[in-house]
Amino acid sequence: MNYIIYCRKSSEAEDRQVMSIDSQEKELLILAQRNNFKIIKTFKENMSAKSPGRPIFEEMLSFIEKKKDCTLLVWKLDRLARNALDGGKISWFMDRKLIIEIRTPEKIFKNISDDMFMMSLDFGIAKKYIDDLSQNVKRGNRAKLSLGGWPNHAPKGYINNKADKTIIIDKKSAHYVIRIFELYSKGTYNLKEVADILYQEGFRSCSGKKIFKGHIHRIIKNPFYYGVMLRDGKYYEGKHEPLISKTLHDQANEVLNGKLHSKKQKLFFHLRGLLKCANCGCMLTASKKKGHDYYYCTNGKGECEEHKKYLRSEKIDEHIADIFSKLQFDEELIELTYRASKEKQTSESVYSEKNALIIEKRLTEVIEAQSRICNSFTAGNTPETLYNAKMTILTNEETALKKQIKEIRKMIGEGVDTLEPVKKLFLEANKARNDYILGDPLQKQIIANNLLWNLGFQGQKVLNLRLKMPYERMAQEPKPTELCEMLRG
After folding, report:
1. What domain count does the chain have?
2. pLDDT digits over 308-328, tens only?
3. What range does the domain containing 168 cover?
4. CATH code of the domain covering residue 185
5. What is the pTM of this model?
């Protein structure tokens, strides 16, 4: 007789309460030792059995086919199968005398009528458990969707808030998602070009790799970004904060579906879409003459004289470079400010951590006090009125302490999360002028779009040139800036 051990543990929710593989093996080895069985092979698998196709299970069956006359030791019968096909394979192997018997610490299943019937019943119960679990999960998901919650992993631009199981905006990637819609809705870029631009701007997957056009396509199609959740062909209103308007989403999807036929520009102008006529409000278009780019009003309203006046690209670039120079700080000062802020933050974190430990200690005392008064009330030593009064006080204090701990932990986490991005923001702004002057047209377009709002143009002069926040705030700082002033900013 050949004795074989099979252990399985699923990583899915249905098996969270099942013994670990090591624990199963230990119990089965004790069973084998008790019966003087010599184990010739042990198979271990970390995979759900709700569907056919487990590689280790199939390997075990092939092994049994070669060895024949085998006894299988398993922790429970549902470790072998939770689906009809795998359960049928086990029964067929027993009918062919390849498996002589199956042993668990509680039962022995032999190739006799009653045992085979009980085995098929156990397999059926295991399958029903999976079927019921699937229905319960689907019902729970539908209930969550109807209440505005999202039951799955958050899409790009959002993250799952584990504390209250909601979806919140991911500050690191949300602006990239908005940028995708803004770029693609213009109709001047295809999906690959949008992916390339976003990659240059720093958009990455969770593993740090490039986001390709297929993912960009899925983002544009997803109504989640304007506040609506699509599941199984049905739309649900979400409680999460939208990243874009429905108008912008619809416009991008019109381009995607070919309904909006924006003409692909043969010539590339790095400031197209950024310049606006300060006189009539129309966007400026561009043309190339004698090797130079010229911008002028489209006169879309038919009442503007500015369309007769041309502004050379180099002239606009000079204005933009001048305003970018207001973002230049001394790099040594940035580093000193960063170090000072980090030192201050570390000091505050240590102080906050000490406070949190003190509060956690008090919380433990409150919980222990609740337990003592419960035991006293159960034993009949404390009157009900006194029990209710004390428990109310302790419960209120417990709630207040938990809230304090949560706020302190959040404050510590926010400080750590924001310091590095702020330093990076200053360093990038610091080199914006040089990068813009020396960059190629595509690099200039990326920098201008990231830092500038629409630029007003009138009388061959650039008016209303403004930076996006927080760059506008940085530009307003007096130069040179003192360390203390930077720390306050």
Report:
1. 3
2. 788 888 888 888 888 788 877
3. 148-262
4. 3.90.1750.20
5. 0.40
